Amino acid sequence: MQTQDITQPQHPLKAEARNLSFYYGAVKALKGINMPIHDKKVTALIGPSGCGKSTYLRSFNRMHDLYPGNRYEGEIRFFPDNTNLLSADVDPIEVRMRVGMVFQKPNPFPKSIFENVAYGLRVRGLSNKRLLDEKVEQALRSAALWDEVKDRLQALAPTLSGGQQQRLCIARALATDPELLLFDEPTSALDPIATGAIEELVHELKKRVTILIVTHNMQQAARVSDYTAYMYLGEMIEFGNTDEIFMKPNDRRTEDYITGRMG
Ligand SMILES: Nc1ncnc2c1ncn2[C@@H]1O[C@H](COP(=O)(O)OP(=O)(O)OP(=O)(O)O)[C@@H](O)[C@H]1O
Predict the structure, then answer these.
(1) 234 CA: nearest ligand 1 atom
(2) 213, 206 in Cβ contact below 8 A?
(3) Could you state, in chain order, the average pLDDT of each consecutive group of 10 residues for the chain (263 residues)?
(4) Which pLDDT value is given to residue 7?
């Protein structure tokens, strides 16, 4: 992998993949990935279909543990405590409290708007009504949804528009104060206006949470991210400042991809 010489001062790390490989049974989908995730920055993962972006993203919240036959090798170090998120003695439920996930298609629970956001808090044992109300409002405000839903908190979540549902899923993920937020192509099911709202939100959110985002949209990667990683066939080919990756990539394969010659 080529890592660019970053002239600006380095930001502290939130996480770091160290020689990370991943197997779906006999299929090796990730091959020895090394990559830093900078604290309170947005890192975009780009690369052609099937290169392993989602597989890599899902390793950070141990989603692969839910299916038999999946296997990790290597480490994902999480800071400041230097925990290896993949260690057998680290509880995946705890990992998912620290590392939230927002999927491609909005997937609210078939419950009220309020209950969608309160869910993770209840799982954590919070039952005090006043505190729940406060936390739900805070999360909805952070997801730029409060003003649109404050008078209909008991309405069913699926009655919201697609873009509102996606912001609700972001509020749900934010409610438990995650340190890292994973976005898997969060705008691919949305129209340009809803997409713009999510991109703006990502920009706001990085003040308080580190973000790792998979996107097929090069303009989106360039707009929202501070760092970009290019993956190909399960390998991390190049990682660097977004501006440099897009303007002056070091690896020919990265250049071919971002100029549309490949993928
Ligand atoms: N459940 C699975 N079982 C076996 N192989 C899988 C499974 N899921 C993904 N793969 C394989 O792992 C590789 C990486 O897939 P992944 O979904 O991570 O790629 P991606 O870069 O996110 O693709 P896309 O951009 O199309 O979403 C692919 O070769 C894929 O076929």
Answers:
(1) 14
(2) no
(3) 53 95 97 98 97 98 93 97 96 93 93 96 93 96 95 97 94 95 93 91 94 95 97 97 96 94 67
(4) 46
Q: What is the pLDDT of residue 2?
A: 55
CA distance linking residue 62 with residue 219, whole number of Å: 29
Distance from Cα 55 to the centre of ligand 1, integer Å = 6
Residue ranges around ligand 1 (CB below 6 Å): 24, 27, 29, 47, 49-55
216 near 186, Cβ under 8 Å? no
* Ligand 1 centre distance from Cα of residue 67 (Å): 14
CATH level 3 topology of 11-256: Rossmann fold (3.40.50)
d(CA 13, CA 15): 6
- What single string gives the DSSP state of each residue in 144-196? T-HHHHTT-TTSBGGGS-HHHHHHHHHHHHHTT--SEEEEESTTTTS-HHHHH
pLDDT score for 73: 97
**What per-residue confidence (pLDDT) applies to 189?**
86
Residue closest via CA to ligand 1's atom 28 equals 50
Q: Which helix (H) or strand (E) holds 28?
A: strand 27-38
| Ranges of each domain in the chain | 11-256
Which atom of ligand 1 is nearest the CA belonging to 185? 27
